[in-house]
Write a structure and sequence with these properties.
Helices cover 18% and strands 37% of the residues. By secondary structure, it is α+β, with helices and mostly antiparallel strands. Strands 1, 2, 3, 4, 5, 6, 7 and 8 form an eight-stranded mixed β-sheet that branches.
């Protein structure tokens, strides 16, 4: 479950970053591999922040690892609080507007493929848990 305000007795195990990478009114979704948590679901580029890492460094690292895109102008959107049955974490959302259509090179260890979708159409896809809430929040749907 996703919260805008930090819930009482919230003990985050880690922090996660994610980025809405936009090009021509669509954003990038990556299809998770079978061996990953929530397999065969779509998510935005992102992942866990290493303990010694700053979040702005983590999001750049994750984007590069997952797409091979290096040069992006990132805008911080919001942090939200996520509670799963067995752990809590903080989720930091970013966005970037790409000026040209990038060549996406996905990491086959993590993802199977990718698609570009308009926000309203992305809600029809099989998304990772709570991404629909994030899409609605970010795009004000």
């Amino acid at each position: 479950m996703l919260y805008i305000e930090k819930p009482e007795i919230f003990n985050p195990k880690f922090e996660v970053v994610g980025c809405f990478m936009e090009y021509k009114n669509e954003f990038l979704l990556l299809l998770r591999q079978d061996h990953k948590n929530e397999p065969n679901t779509y998510g935005i580029p992102g992942g866990k922040v290493w303990a010694w890492e700053k979040i702005d460094v983590a999001i750049r690292r994750e984007i590069k690892e997952e797409t091979w895109i290096e040069e992006v102008n990132l805008e911080y959107f919001k942090e939200v609080y996520v509670r799963y049955p067995t752990y809590d974490f903080i989720y930091h959302m970013y966005s970037t507007k790409l000026k040209y259509e990038p060549e996406i090179k996905i990491n086959p260890e993590e993802h199977k493929s990718y698609i570009w979708r308009k926000p309203i159409d992305a809600l029809k896809e099989n998304l990772i848990e709570d991404l629909d809430v994030c899409i609605k929040m970010f795009y004000k749907i």
